[in-house]
Amino acid sequence: MLFAVLGLLVVLLHYYLWKRLVRDVFTSGRARLVGTVVLVVLVVCVLATLTLARVVPPQVGAWFAWPGYIWLALFLYLMLALLVLELVRLALRPWVRADPAAAQAEPTTAETEAEPRKPVVGRRVFLARSAAVVAGVASATTVGVGMGTALGGPQLKRVPVPVGGSALRGYRIAVVSDIHLGPISGRAHTERIVRAINETEPDLVAMVGDLADGSVPELGEAAAPLRDLVSREGTFFVTGNHEYYSGHEQWITELERLGLHYLRNEHTLVAGDRLTLAGVPDVTGKSFSDAPDIPEALRGRRPELPTVLLAHQPVQVADAAAAGVDLQLSGHTHGGQLWPFHYAVRAAQPAVSGLSQVDGTWLYVSNGAGFWGPPVRVGAPPDITVVELGGPSQGPS
């Protein structure tokens, strides 16, 4: 039902796009036909990408995921640009109605037999073509720059957090989330992330969910470079919501085979027994008999030690704060990934990106090292973050 509604919405919005970019722009019937066919093909490509990407092997899905997702991003920014330009259309409506060419008479019989009169491009067509050019240039530029940002690799951030005081000063946790292996991002993506993390020489690596969009048989080879992660105390991970869509148990088994340590509602001591590191499943796990349980994860902890919690979604910080967690490390939001979606994310999560505080608990939200859907990021570059404990904070970001 959800996919039917989504598909209908995609078709209706493309109809609006057809009106503004095809019907209003072209006066030639042949040009309109070509534009209509192109738009229909793009609609089919988008629908195939949204419905088939998860049910076919990534190698097959890549054939329509690349054009489908890129068009989806272009479509988004074309829609935004055209909606803004509707205000311009509204303001210029009196000017268009006063166009003398709008009342152009039909050519006479003599004119038709001699040489057909060339159609006069009136103000309405001129305005439509101008709006199409502006919207096209704006959307193409935005998506082009956004693709460069998304595919250019994650930025390295260093964020001091005043947790643990002098006892933990200089202890560094490399945080990575939302790698999203799939039909577009493969083994080379993982290798680049591993190299970037290893170059920071962290004390510990924390992976906070959404590694893959597919099964282990499909994407296990793409995830294999994770075995090469190097840190003084190893790599710890928790599940994200996409693990449950892809088969969370098989991914847990595979990551443990690669040498990573899973924290499922449990904790361990690190940093020479000076820090409690805990982890919980994603909230989506409730629907898969794998619900997060922060009190259980912290049961038996030493109360005098600071606690760092790995939890995929920032929204879990409310329970973390109630349990006395000092710092929660999360991902999930992608920093909004495509502006202006960060406004929608902010309505659903206590934080979109960066460092903040919630009821006395520090919360750090990574933008993620990959992307979901379109290989485009606008206003939210991918990142890997080294959280440095025990130092003065830069304050909420």
Written overview of the protein:
It is a single chain. The protein has helices spanning 2-23, 29-52, 58-91, 93-97, 109-114, 123-151, 187-199, 216-223, 241-246, 248-257, 294-298, 317-322, 341-348; strands spanning 155-161, 172-176, 204-207, 235-237, 261-262, 266-270, 275-279, 307-310, 327-330, 354-358, 361-365, 383-389. The strands form 2 sheets. A 6-stranded mixed β-sheet has the order 1-12-2-3-4-5, covered by helices on one side. The protein has a 6-stranded mixed β-sheet with strand order 6-7-8-9-11-10. The chain is elongated. The chain starts with a helix and ends in an 8-residue tail after the last strand. It folds into 2 domains: 2-98 and 122-149, no CATH class; 153-389, Purple Acid Phosphatase, chain A, domain 2 (4-Layer Sandwich). Helices cover 44% and strands 14% of the residues. With 397 residues, it is an alpha/beta fold. The model has no long low-confidence stretch (mean pLDDT 90). It has 13 helices and 12 strands. A hairpin with a 4-residue loop joins strand 6 and strand 7 (275-279). Helix 1 (2-23) crosses helix 3 (58-91). One of its GO terms (cellular component) is membrane. GO terms for molecular function: metal ion binding; UDP-2,3-diacylglucosamine hydrolase activity.
